[in-house]
C-alpha cells in the first residue's frame, strides 16, 4: 500500500521564505541568499517526507511566488510590457510579473478556487508567443534526486492552466483561450521529455478545474490534450490530480477514459459523491490516489473512519492499485504543530498540521498493508473520543439556541423604506451622507501599545488611556472634516476576526499557524473548536466611550458571523451553517447591548460573504440562504430607529446581488472603486435596491489622493443610476493601512465633493 502527498507548504515552519523574499525585495540580501533559504526548505521537506515513509513525494510544489506564475514562466507567456527578451526567466522578470516594478504594474491576482490563496492570472491572446523558458520542474526533480529522494514532479495541467487564464487587454471577446492548447502542448512535451530523461517515473498533472461545472467543449479539451500528449507520456506513469470538491459524473467519465493516464487523484474529504462514482466503475489496472487526509483544515484525521473508507475502495479498485493521499496540497493548512507553544495538550491532541498529516498518510498506508502502528492508532482514537465528548466543545445551551433558529426567517418586522424614514427622523442626516468604513490609520505607536498591553508590559489603565486618546483624536478629526456618521477608528483591534474570536468561547489561536495568502503574505486563521458563545460584551465599552465624545452618530462596529466563519479554521464535526448560526447568536447579543447603550448606527461587516460561495452552482443557493439568514439573525431584534449598516469587500458581487438585498440591511457600503461600471450595471439593468448604498468613491488600496472633481464625477455617475436619497458617500474600505498624510486630504476632498453635489441637487 503506497502513500502520496499532493503538495506541501512553501513558506517554512516559521515563515522563513517570507522573510527571505522580503529581505531580497528590499535589497537587503542577495539572490544567492534567497536561493539558499529556498533550497534548505525544499530539502528539509523532501527529507521529512522520505523519513516518514511517503512513496510518492512531490517536487516542483515549491514556488518563489505562485505555481500558476511558475507555469506562465515555464511556457514563456510573459506579457509584452515586461520586456522579456527570451532565454531562461530570472528573478527580475518573474517578480516584476508578480509585484510590478517602478514602471509597470503587476499582473492581476485572483482567488484560487474557494481557498484564501491567490494566484497570478495568466494574460493570453492570439499573439502570445510560447517558448520553454523556465526549467524549474526539471531542476527541482534533479535537486531532490541528488539528495537521494526520487520525487514525482508536479505541473499545473494544460487545460486547467488555460481555463484559469484571461484574455489579455485588447483581445477580441470572441477569442477562446482553449484555442491555445495546440500552442502550449509542445512545451509540455519538452518538459515531459526532460523529466523522463532525468529519471522521473511518475509525473503529476494538477487539473483541479475538473471539479467545476464545465461545458462539453471544455471537457473535450481534456480528451484532446491528453490524447495529443499520449506518445510523449508513454513510458511514464501519469497522475491526474483533482481537488476541492467531487468530480462531476461527466468529468469523471471523460478522464477515466483516457489511455495515457495511470492514476487519478480525488478529494474524498469534500468530494463525498466521488466515492459512489468510483464504486460504480473505475478503470481496471489504474491507480486511485485517495485523498482522505484533509489539506484544507487543521484537524487530526479520524484514522478509523479513513480505514473503513479505504477498505471499501480497496474492494473497488484492487489492493495494489490504491494509494493513500491528501485531499489537496497541504499548502492550505498550517505547517507544523510542533511550533505551537501556547495551545494546551488537549487541543493539540485534536489537531494535525501539514507535518503531522504526512505522518497520518503514511500510518494509514501501513495499516492497510498490514503493519498497523497500534500505539498511534489508539492515541488517535482517544483524541477523537475526547473531542466528541469534551465540555470545552459542547455547550448544551448554545446547541439548543442554535437548533431553535431553524424554520424561522428572522426578518425585521418593518420594511426597509419605513425603517429608513424612522431613522432619518432621529439621525437627521443631509442627503449624500458621508461616512468611513471603520478603521483609521494604525500607527507604529498604536501597534506598540497593543503589543505591550498583551505582554503585560503596561497596565490596563495605561492601555485604556492610550486607546482613549487615539479615539478622541479620530473623533475630532472627523468632526473637523465634517463627516456625518463617525467611527471610533478601531485602534484596539489588530484584526477584524481575531479581535472577536479572542473574546468568544470556542476559539483557539496559534502562534505559527500561518497559511500563504499570496506571494509572501500569510494569514493566521483562528481555530473554531467548540460551540461558540459570548461570555460578556465585546465592544460596548469602546463604542459608548466614543459616542460620549461627540453629538454626531457614532457607528458601533462588528464583524459579521459569515466573515468570522469564512476567515477561520472551522470545526468539521458539525455542518458549517451550525457554527455560523452560533456565531450569529453571539453577535446578536452584542448588537442588542450596543443598542441598549445608546448606539443608533451599528455596522456589521460581512467582508467575506462572497468568498464562501461554493464552487458548484448546485450548492450555491443553500449557502446563500444560511449565510444571509445568519446575518439577519444578528439584527432582527433591533428597533426600527436603529440603523444597521453592513460592508463588503471585493467588487465581484453582481452574482450575489439578490442575497445582498435579502440581507435586509439599512445601508450597505461596498468596495467598488476599481469597477464602478460593473456594479452600477446591475442597477441599470433594473435590479431594485431600496436600502441605503455607498459604493466606495475612492480606492483606499492606493496611496494616491483623489481630487474633489474626480470624486464628484464618480458620485454623479452613481446618481445617474441610483436614487439620490439612498446614496451614501464613503471610501471603499477601512483606512487601516493608509497614512494620515493620505487620509486627511482624501477625506477632505470626499466631503467637499459630497457638499458640492448637495448644492446642485
Ligand atoms: N471595519 C473594517 C475596517 O474598516 C472593515 C475591513 C474590511 O472590510 N476588510 O477596517
Ligand atoms: Zn472592506
List the helices and strands and how they pair.
Blueprint: E1 2-3, H1 16-25, H2 31-52, E2 57-59, H3 67-75, H4 91-99, E3 109-111, E4 118-120, E5 123-124, H5 136-146, E6 151-156, H6 158-163, E7 166-167, H7 181-198, E8 202-206, H8 216-228, H9 230-233, E9 237-241, H10 249-256, E10 263-267, H11 274-280, E11 287-293, H12 303-317, E12 322-326, H13 345-349, H14 354-368, H15 374-389, H16 396-403, H17 416-427, H18 444-454, H19 460-481, H20 498-501, E13 505-508, E14 515-518, E15 521-523, E16 527-533, H21 540-548, E17 555-559, H22 561-566, H23 576-596, E18 601-605, H24 617-635, E19 643-648, H25 657-662, E20 667-670, H26 676-684, E21 692-695, H27 708-719, H28 740-760
Parallel strand pairs: 1-12, 2-6, 5-7, 6-8, 8-9, 9-10, 10-11, 11-12, 17-18, 18-19, 19-20, 20-21
Antiparallel strand pairs: 3-4, 13-16, 14-15
Helix pairs in contact: 1-2, 5-7, 8-10, 11-12, 12-14, 16-23, 18-19, 23-24, 27-28
Glutamine binds next to loops.
For this entry, give a set of tags.
about 750 residues; alpha/beta; 8-stranded parallel beta sheet; 5-stranded parallel beta sheet; methionine biosynthesis; UROD/MetE-like_sf; 5-methyltetrahydropteroyltriglutamate-homocysteine S-methyltransferase activity
Amino acid at each position: 500500500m503506497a502513500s502520496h502527498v499532493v503538495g506541501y507548504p512553501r513558506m517554512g515552519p516559521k515563515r522563513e521564505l517570507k522573510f527571505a523574499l522580503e529581505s531580497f525585495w528590499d535589497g537587503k540580501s542577495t539572490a544567492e541568499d534567497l536561493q539558499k533559504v529556498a533550497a534548505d526548505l525544499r530539502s528539509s521537506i523532501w527529507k521529512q517526507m522520505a523519513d516518514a515513509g511517503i512513496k510518492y513525494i512531490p517536487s516542483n510544489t515549491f514556488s518563489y511566488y505562485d505555481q500558476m506564475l511558475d507555469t506562465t514562466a515555464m511556457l514563456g507567456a510573459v506579457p509584452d510590457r515586461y520586456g522579456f527578451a527570451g532565454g531562461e526567466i530570472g528573478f527580475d522578470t518573474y517578480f516584476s510579473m508578480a509585484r510590478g516594478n517602478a514602471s509597470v504594474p503587476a499582473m492581476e491576482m485572483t482567488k484560487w478556487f474557494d481557498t484564501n490563496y491567490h494566484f497570478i492570472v495568466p494574460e493570453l491572446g492570439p499573439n502570445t508567443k510560447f517558448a520553454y523558458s523556465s526549467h524549474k520542474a526539471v531542476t527541482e526533480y534533479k535537486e531532490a534526486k541528488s539528495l537521494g529522494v526520487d520525487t514525482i514532479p508536479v505541473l499545473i495541467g494544460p487545460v486547467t492552466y488555460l481555463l484559469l487564464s484571461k484574455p489579455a487587454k485588447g483581445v477580441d471577446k470572441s477569442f477562446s483561450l482553449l484555442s491555445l492548447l495546440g500552442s502550449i502542448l509542445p512545451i509540455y512535451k519538452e518538459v515531459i521529455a526532460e523529466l523522463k530523461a532525468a529519471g522521473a517515473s511518475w509525473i503529476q498533472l494538477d487539473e483541479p478545474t475538473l471539479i467545476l461545472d464545465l461545458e462539453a467543449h471544455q471537457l473535450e479539451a481534456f480528451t484532446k490534450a491528453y490524447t495529443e500528449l499520449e506518445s510523449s507520456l508513454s513510458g511514464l506513469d501519469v497522475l491526474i490530480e483533482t481537488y476541492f470538491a467531487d468530480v462531476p459524473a461527466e468529468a469523471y467519465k471523460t478522464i477515466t477514459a483516457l489511455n495515457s493516464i495511470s492514476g487519478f487523484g480525488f478529494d474524498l474529504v469534500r468530494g463525498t459523491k466521488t466515492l459512489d462514482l468510483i464504486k460504480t466503475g473505475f478503470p481496471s489496472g489504474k491507480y486511485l490516489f485517495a485523498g482522505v487526509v484533509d489539506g484544507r483544515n487543521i484537524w487530526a484525521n479520524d484514522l478509523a473512519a479513513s480505514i473503513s473508507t479505504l477498505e471499501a475502495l480497496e474492494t473497488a479498485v484492487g489492493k495494489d492499485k490504491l494509494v493513500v493521499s491528501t485531499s489537496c496540497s497541504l499548502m492550505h493548512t498550517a505547517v507544523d504543530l510542533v511550533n505551537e507553544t501556547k495551545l494546551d495538550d488537549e487541543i493539540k491532541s485534536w489537531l494535525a498540521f501539514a507535518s503531522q498529516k504526512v505522518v497520518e498518510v503514511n500510518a494509514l498506508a501501513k495499516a492497510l498493508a498490514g503493519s498497523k502502528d497500534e500505539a498511534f492508532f489508539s492515541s488517535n482514537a482517544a483524541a477523537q473520543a475526547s473531542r466528541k465528548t469534551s465540555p470545552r466543545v459542547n455547550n448544551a445551551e448554545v446547541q439548543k439556541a442554535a437548533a431553535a433558529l431553524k424554520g424561522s426567517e428572522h426578518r425585521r418586522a418593518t420594511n426597509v423604506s419605513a425603517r429608513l424614514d424612522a431613522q432619518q427622523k432621529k439621525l437627521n442626516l443631509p442627503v449624500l451622507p458621508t461616512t468611513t468604513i471603520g478603521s483609521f490609520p494604525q500607527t507604529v505607536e498604536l501597534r506598540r501599545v497593543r503589543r505591550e498591553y498583551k505582554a503585560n508590559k503596561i497596565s490596563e489603565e495605561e492601555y485604556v488611556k492610550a486607546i482613549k486618546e487615539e479615539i478622541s483624536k479620530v473623533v475630532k478629526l472627523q468632526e473637523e472634516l465634517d463627516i456625518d456618521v463617525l467611527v471610533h477608528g478601531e485602534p484596539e483591534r489588530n484584526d477584524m476576526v481575531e479581535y472577536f474570536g479572542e473574546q468568544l468561547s470556542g476559539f483557539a489561536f496559534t502562534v505559527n499557524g500561518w497559511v500563504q495568502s499570496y506571494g509572501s503574505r500569510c494569514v493566521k486563521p483562528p481555530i473554531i473548536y467548540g460551540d461558540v458563545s459570548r461570555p460578556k460584551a465585546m465592544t460596548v465599552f469602546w463604542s459608548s466611550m466614543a459616542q460620549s465624545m461627540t453629538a454626531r452618530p457614532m457607528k458601533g462596529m462588528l464583524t459579521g458571523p459569515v466573515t468570522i466563519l469564512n476567515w477561520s479554521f472551522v470545526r468539521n464535526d458539525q455542518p458549517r451553517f451550525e457554527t455560523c448560526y452560533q456565531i450569529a447568536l453571539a453577535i446578536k447579543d452584542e448588537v442588542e447591548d450596543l443598542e441598549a447603550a445608546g448606539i443608533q448606527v451599528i455596522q456589521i461587516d460581512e467582508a467575506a460573504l462572497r468568498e464562501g460561495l461554493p464552487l458548484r452552482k448546485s450548492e450555491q443557493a443553500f449557502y446563500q440562504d444560511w449565510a444571509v439568514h445568519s446575518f439577519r439573525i444578528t439584527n432582527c431584534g433591533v428597533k426600527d430607529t436603529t440603523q444597521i449598516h453592513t460592508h463588503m469587500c471585493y467588487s465581484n458581487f453582481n452574482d450575489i446581488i439578490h442575497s445582498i438585498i435579502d440581507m435586509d440591511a439599512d445601508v450597505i457600503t461596498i468596495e467598488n472603486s476599481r469597477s464602478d461600471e460593473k456594479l452600477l450595471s446591475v442597477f441599470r439593468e433594473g435590479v431594485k435596491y431600496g436600502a441605503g448604498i455607498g459604493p466606495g468613491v475612492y480606492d483606499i488600496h492606493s496611496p494616491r489622493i483623489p481630487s474633489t472633481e474626480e470624486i464628484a464625477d464618480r458620485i454623479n455617475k452613481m446618481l445617474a443610476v441610483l436614487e439620490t436619497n439612498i446614496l451614501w458617500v464613503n471610501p471603499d474600505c477601512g483606512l487601516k493601512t493608509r497614512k494620515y498624510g493620505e487620509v486627511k486630504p482624501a477625506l477632505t476632498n470626499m466631503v467637499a465633493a459630497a457638499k458640492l453635489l448637495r448644492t446642485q441637487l
